[in-house]
Amino acid sequence: MTNVLKRFSDVPHWVFLFIIGVLVFIPFLGNAHLFDWDEINFAESAREMLLTHHYRTVQINFQPFYEKPPFFIWLQALSMSYFGVNEFAARIPNAFFGILTLITVYNVGRRYFDRDMGIWWALLFACSVLPQMYFKSGIIDPVFNYFIFLSLYFLFSISIRDDFEPNKMRRKNHRWYMIASALAAGVAVLTKGPVALGIIVMVVTILLLINKGKLNFNLGDLILWLLVVTLVIAAWLSFEIRANGLTFVHNFIVYQIRLFSTEDAGHGGPVYFHVLAVLLGCFPASVLCLDAFRRQQDDTLHQVSLKRWMIVLLVVVLVVFSIVKTKIIHYSSLSYFPVTFLGAYYIYHLQHGRWRWSWRQTVPMAVISAAFAVAVGAAIWIGSHPVILSHIQADPFAMEAMKAKVYWTLSDLFVPIGLLVGMVAALILLAKKRIMIGMAALLLSTCLFTNLTLALIVPRIEKYSQAAMIEFLESRKLEDCYVEVAGFKSYAQLFYKDKQQPATPQELDAEYILTGPTSKPVYVVTRVDKLHTLNFLDRYEELYRKNGFVFLKKK
């Protein structure tokens, strides 16, 4: 037995984190359909890349899509070429970057603190609610945020001075870290856009002010960094501009301005939206980090510096995206890096006896976990007793959607109850200063709750929202026909109908297909609350209605 344990102790810790990442992020990736809009949007763009072999520019409905650069779509297209065009293939790139993120933050924490700090940081990333969910999604942000963090980390590595490192080696590492930072920044821009550069520049500028201009950067470093970033971006844009001129650049800039200054697609919200989203969504790391801002005298200069960089990054993300008019929950997901770092920092000092667990952690931990349990429990209860909603005046679509045949049982309540039991046990253990086992119970209970919610609850909730439409679209996949949506926006009719590249420009004109003469059958998907807004109903017959959707066919 002793020999077996010794062999396990000799295995590098990143191997265990890799296994944890696989177990946490990969199961159930294809358990639910992709969700409108973002998940289906990006997956459809990847599918069209494979169909058209047009890899230079992102497109949607076989027309240029100016809102996003191509890097993430390339990853999805590569995945689909291997796993097929499906939900698993659309989401596996983020699961891979989730595993990569765990190993990266572990190595950063181990380098500037020790192994314990690295492990806590990685485990908090793996077990907190929204970080775990977004590594199991098909959205762009996990990849985008990873490269921003990597760029900032290399800049941080330059900013600190190691007095035991030879000058020649320091200058060499300095140069390569600067190039690595610029490469990561360039890839971040190719993933989602120039907001990456804005965040990096703001973080570094604020730190320069805090440190009175001393970050070991000089003008030559700045020029080198900008040159490499420019080369990375130009390597892609040169092909795009050569083919289509400045059309993409112009439209992309217009979109970014609109996103910043208006409530795009109706996604508005109060100024405190992202603060609340991070507090609730990054649970339990968000609660653990509340007490981590105070100074710790035992920290080394490098540890103090890393903490300062993380705090500045957190402030920049929350301020910037609180100003942006469009409020979408994953816009502030870059804050998961500093929040999980600060949470791990608190656990680290708690573990070493420098800090104490107190009511400042117990109360919000209990309240937020109870809120999650009540929310999921209420969803299960209402789903199993839909008659409750018949007394509530809701919009017609929501009322019809709740008539979906979804089977719930009281045994499903073990998911929220399990969270409460695990949390109570964890809080009792922590109050009794059983730090290691208490934290293990805390992280395990939130990790299982999130994974089970995604595996068992979300697929059934999806049946109320979009499953009826996707079921209809998939039933028309083998039929040579047109399918359009009317009265609302969706990309599902492209991805789940498996739309092929049109042979004529008229086939891209939705208005022409809906009202003009066509040689193929035409189907329309609309919603009960949008039916009265359509002006072409006299040309269509109703096939059936289901869960708030109305399915029509041209006569």
Your description of this structure?
The protein is mainly alpha-helical and 555 residues long. The chain has helices at residues 2-10, 13-25, 38-52, 71-83, 87-112, 115-127, 129-134, 141-159, 167-191, 195-210, 219-244, 247-261, 273-281, 285-288, 301-323, 336-351, 359-384, 396-401, 414-431, 435-465, 467-475, 492-495, 510-515; strands at 59-60, 63-64, 482-485, 522-527, 540-546, 549-554. Strand 5 (540-546) and strand 6 form a beta hairpin. Helix 2 (13-25) runs antiparallel to helix 5 (87-112), helix 2 (13-25) runs parallel beside helix 6 (115-127) and helix 5 (87-112) packs antiparallel against helix 6 (115-127). Strands 3-4-6-5 form a four-stranded mixed beta sheet. Helix content is 63%, strand content 5%. The longest helix is centred in the last third of the chain and has 31 residues, at 435-465. Residues 1-8 have low confidence and may be disordered.
Count of individual domains: 3
How many strands in all? 6
**Order of the strands making up the biggest sheet:** 3-4-6-5
Low-confidence stretches: 1-8
Radius of gyration, Cα only, in angstroms? 25 Å
Helix content: 55-70%
The chain-level structural class is: mainly alpha
Order of helical and strand elements: HHHEEHHHHHHHHHHHHHHHHHHEHHEEE
The number of helical runs is 23
Percent range for β-strand residues: under 5%
